[in-house]
């Protein structure tokens, strides 16, 4: 038997396969709701040229129509005006508005300050660099050394020097450092 029928059969199979989607990107990327996807992504938030925060993530989903980026997971370092790190935040995901640099971290949020051994645990945390405010409206636990405070939320300045824990009873606890 001559090799020609085998070559013809292989060419027919190869031609039929060309109409199918390849395994490289496939439907997974086509079905994502984002306009762009970045891996091993980083984003610096600056104020007048001074680094105020550095955000790192495994994956970032960019939504161009809203200037919104969804980060999964979040690894955020906050800096003071002198460039010294003031806190470190981790969460399952976070949303950043690139127009305002406002951020909302969600899912197992842990914020640890570099001074004073302070730790804040909550399920959602907001950060607004324009007002210098960090807060949560969800149940929060604040640790200061061996002291543990629980509340229905909290509010703080971005340097974590003035923290107010909301008790939900009309009584709030203010911590100043």
How would you describe this protein?
With 177 residues, this protein is mostly beta strands. The chain has a single domain, classed as Lipopolysaccharide (LPS) transport protein A like domain (lipopolysaccharide transport protein A fold). It contains two helices and 14 strands. It has helices at residues 4-17, 26-30; strands at residues 36-47, 50-63, 68-72, 74-79, 85-91, 93-97, 103-113, 118-128, 133-136, 140-144, 147-151, 153-157, 162-166, 172-176. A six-stranded antiparallel beta barrel has the order 2-3-6-7-5-4. The longest helix has 14 residues, at 4-17. It is globular, with a radius of gyration of 24 Å. The termini are far apart. Mean pLDDT is 79; it is low at 1-27.
- The fourth-level CATH homologous superfamily is Lipopolysaccharide (LPS) transport protein A like domain
CATH class: Mainly Beta
What value does the average pLDDT take?
Answer: 79
Q: How far apart are the termini?
A: 90 Å
The poorly predicted ranges are: 1-27
Residue fraction in strands: over 45%
Briefly note the structural class of the backbone.
mainly beta
Order of helices and strands: HHEEEEEEEEEEEEEE
The share of residues in helices is 10-25%
By CATH, the topology is lipopolysaccharide transport protein A fold
Secondary-structure arrangement, i.e. CATH architecture: Sandwich
Query: Which outline best applies?
Result: globular
How big is the Rg?
24 Å
Q: Count of helical segments?
A: 2
Largest sheet: 6 strands, antiparallel, barrel
How many domains would you count in the coordinates? 1
Number-wise, the strands total 14
